[in-house]
Specification:
The protein folds into 4 domains: 107 residues, 3-Layer(aba) Sandwich (Rossmann fold); 69 residues; 170 residues, P-loop containing nucleotide triphosphate hydrolases (Rossmann fold, 3-Layer(aba) Sandwich); 59 residues, 2-Layer Sandwich (Alpha-Beta Plaits), CATH 3.30.70. Helix content is 39%, strand content 18%. A 6-stranded mixed beta sheet has the order 8-9-7-10-11-12, with helices on both faces. Strands 3-1-5-6 form a 4-stranded parallel beta sheet, with helices on both faces. It has a 4-stranded antiparallel beta sheet with strand order 14-15-13-16, covered by helices on one side.
């Protein structure tokens, strides 16, 4: 039977920017002694991940709510036991360590059934939570807006409802009257389930209102109209640092998992002078709970409707390729699996400042072979001019182009074109000015109000991609 290694795996150092967090439901901040356990399941697909990498991530998640991590273990699980997940010897060995080190909380970096969780708590005499519970704890602590709190509560209640176990039969409530209509009334578990269902229904109604409000905001932006660029990426990939660097905002950008939860939008000025809206979103992570993805659909709707999606990757991370697959998997769940084919996806290979010269040369060579990649560093600003130029080029390429000819002295109409479109070329000839201008559909609809018909030489002109 497989047993826990005698010498525990070394813990990764705490992140340099780690900041104390408030009290969480799993214990007092900084005082809950926690053991992280990552079961290595026999035959599971690694997908490019390493056990140390997964353990480091799990420890980072625990420290994200300032739990005091006293150790980490990675026992090999050859056969999953329905009662406890781990083997009997492993449960005993871990129990001895838990008792000896005064562990108050065990985080299982994986999924636990309600029965497994209950049996492990009985065997070890302490609180046990799984990866989904831990992520929900983090999200619950970080949500600041009403929308964010509703989304997290919905995910938590959906998760909790699935884990109600029939262990409270002694709390059965008897029906009033003579008992002719079925004997015992609601049991405690049925009452809890009904209350959860009622709360879920109320939250879903609230989120529907949020979705309608966001839809109205998108319609208002469509009338402006500004293109929207949505940031996505694995948690702690540097999205908020990039957001701050490009927009001058002050979004929390700590070196910490899930430092950003509530979405933020700011205006961005592109090299051509045209404005755009940059949207910072929640970070993704491996094994992100399905209920959480479903709950955050109202927020992630901004990603679905964005003109461009900017995927920020941490190329200094040892499992950057696996993290990329996790992000693309979540985008696929949102129906966005064809972003690259549609020309709407750009990747920033971020944190170039953290790799050595040899690795930087390899990355540059790899990036040169791909048309959707820009190398850079959000922290130092390296490569961000190239990134902005690529975003600008993509947005212009997707915008219809109109060719106009005006009197060179018609400054008012020239100024309108520069304010509402992107002037691609301008040619002066015999007192006339000929221009090619990229205009969004809403602005093109206003052309007839500002320009005489004979000035619009090619209202259905080609765009920069060569399509008519």
């Amino acid at each position: 039977m497989s047993r826990v290694p005698k010498s525990p795996l070394p813990l990764p150092p705490p992140p340099p920017g780690d900041v104390a967090a408030p009290v969480t439901p799993v214990g007092h901040a900084g005082s809950t002694r926690t053991l992280v356990v990552h079961p290595r399941l026999a035959g599971e697909a690694r997908d490019g991940r390493t056990d140390p990498g997964r353990i480091e991530e799990a420890v980072g998640l625990a420290r994200a709510i300032d739990l005091e991590v006293v150790g980490a273990e990675s026992p090999q699980v050859r056969t999953v036991r329905p009662a406890t997940l781990l083997g009997r010897g492993q449960v005993t060995a871990l129990g001895e360590r838990i008792t000896a080190e005064g562990v108050e909380l065990v985080v299982i970096d994986g999924a636990l059934s309600p029965v497994q969780q209950r049996n492990l708590e009985r065997a070890w005499g302490c609180k046990v939570i799984d990866r989904t519970s831990l992520i929900l704890e983090i999200f619950g602590e970080r949500a600041k807006t009403r929308e964010g709190r509703l989304q997290v509560e919905l995910a938590a209640l959906t998760y909790q409802r699935s884990r109600l176990v029939r262990s409270w039969t002694h709390l059965e409530r008897q029906r009033g009257g003579y008992g002719f209509l079925g004997g015992p009334g609601e049991s405690q578990i049925e009452l809890d389930r009904r209350r959860i269902d009622e709360r879920i229904t109320r939250i879903e109604r609230g989120l529907e209102a949020v979705k309608r409000t966001r839809g109205l905001h998108r319609q208002a932006r469509g009338r402006v109209p500004y293109p929207v660029i949505a940031l996505v990426g694995y948690t702690n990939a540097g999205k908020s640092t990039l957001f701050n660097r490009l927009t001058g905002a002050a979004v929390d950008a700590r070196d910490q998992l899930f430092a950003t939860l509530d979405p933020t939008m700011r205006q961005l000025r592109l090299p051509s002078g045209r404005p755009a809206i940059l949207s910072d979103t929640v970070g993704f992570i491996a094994d992100l709970p399905t209920d959480l993805v479903a709950a955050f659909r109202a927020t992630l709707e901004e990603v679905r409707t964005a003109d461009l999606v900017l995927h920020v990757r941490d190329v200094a991370h040892g499992e950057s390729a696996a993290q990329r697959r996790d992000v693309l998997e979540v985008l696929g769940e949102l129906g966005l699996q064809h972003l690259a084919d549609e020309g709407r996806l750009v990747e920033l290979w971020n944190k170039l400042d953290l790799v050595d010269r040899e690795a930087a040369e390899r990355l540059a060579s790899a990036a040169a072979r791909q048309r959707d990649v820009v190398l850079g560093s959000a922290l130092t600003g390296q490569g961000l001019d190239d990134l902005l130029a690529e975003l600008d080029r993509r947005l212009v390429a997707a915008t219809p182009v109109v060719e106009l000819e005006l009197d060179a002295a018609d400054g008012a109409r020239l100024a309108w074109l520069y304010r509402h479109g992107t002037v691609l070329t301008r040619e002066e000839l015999n007192g006339r000015t000929r221009l090619r201008v990229a205009l969004e559909p809403a602005e093109r609809a206003r052309l007839s109000r500002h320009f005489p018909r004979d000035a619009i030489r090619r209202p259905d002109g080609e765009n920069l991609t060569g399509r008519g």
